[in-house]
Specification:
With about 80 residues, the chain is mainly alpha-helical. It has three helices and no strands. The longest helix has 30 residues, at about 50-75.
Length: about 80
């Protein structure tokens, strides 16, 4: 269920970054902040469990950042 949510957020951020690049930064940072909280909470588990619990949040945060930057980069390549 979380995977579907992250994919949806990435798609929305990609579209938002393509259409209005400046206004896409705030939602992107808010999403990354929320995922960072999950990563920090998961990382408090002892030992290997901490890394396992925080990894999905870290990779999701990277995916959100990449989709936002990809939308802004694609917008920059457009001729208009």
């Amino acid at each position: 269920m979380m995977v579907v949510g992250i994919v949806a957020v990435c798609a929305v951020l990609l579209a938002l970054a393509f259409l209005v690049p400046r206004l896409s930064r705030h939602p992107e940072r808010g999403t990354q902040r929320t995922l960072g909280l999950g990563s920090r909470a998961g990382g408090k588990a002892p030992g290997v469990l901490g890394r396992l619990f925080s990894k999905p949040f870290r990779s999701s945060s990277k995916a959100v950042g990449k989709s936002g930057s990809a939308g802004r980069r694609a917008r920059g390549h457009m001729p208009f």
